[in-house]
Design goal:
Elements: E1 3-8, H1 40-57, E2 64-65, H2 67-83, H3 96-101, E3 111-122, H4 128-136, H5 139-145, E4 152-158, E5 171-182
Parallel strand pairs: 1-3, 2-4
Antiparallel strand pairs: 3-5, 4-5
Helix pairs in contact: 1-4
Length: 183
């Protein structure tokens, strides 16, 4: 059985006192897109691009897109909207770690570690550039994104927010799963 670790940052909370330089999102196609049913894949890719440009600016290696982690991220955002909650741990107690543990990502690994950031926004605050900037303004989210340990990532966005958030207007919910495997 593989040993595993989990780092979840939870919800986004801005902390402008420790704000990082803005992510160099201008170099990422789609960084300023507002998520819709028609552009979700482009928004997912743009989010990972912005994260990787930011990691590069801090001298860190880029994260490689991983299909299993993308499926976990997609299940997280879908579950939050459909089941009407906003948290790393689902109402049934499933954690990002338990979701990844049953995927091919964990298969044959002696151990693996997982981190997750989630976010939501409405109106002009739904773009990948804005969401990543907010993660960087939150110390626990920033720590997850700038961890040199992680090698892989999966991103998912849905163009909706859980009703429990009472968010006015059109919105989006994001999840990024970061992981590393040791064999």
């Amino acid at each position: 059985m593989a040993a595993a670790l989990l780092a979840c940052a939870g919800t986004v909370a801005a902390d402008t006192a420790r704000a990082a330089p803005a992510p160099p999102s201008h170099a990422c196609a789609g960084a300023n897109l507002h998520p819709s049913a028609a552009n979700i894949r482009a928004v997912d890719a743009a989010t990972l691009c912005v994260v990787n440009r930011l990691r590069s600016a801090y001298g860190l290696h880029p994260l490689r897109a991983n299909r299993a982690l993308s499926h976990v991220a997609a299940s997280q955002v879908t579950s939050m909207v459909r089941r009407d909650y906003f948290a790393d741990v689902g109402p049934s107690g499933q954690t990002p770690l338990s979701l990844v543990a049953v995927t091919a990502y964990a298969l044959h690994a002696a151990e693996f570690a997982v981190g997750e950031n989630i976010a939501w926004g409405t109106g002009s605050y739904t773009t990948p550039a804005h969401i990543v900037a907010e993660w960087m303004n939150s110390p626990p989210h920033r720590e997850v994104m700038l961890s040199a340990e992680y090698r892989n990532a999966g991103v998912a966005v849905t163009p909706a927010v859980p009703a429990v958030l009472y968010a006015p207007g059109r919105g989006a919910t994001y999840a990024i799963e970061l992981g590393v495997r040791r064999f």
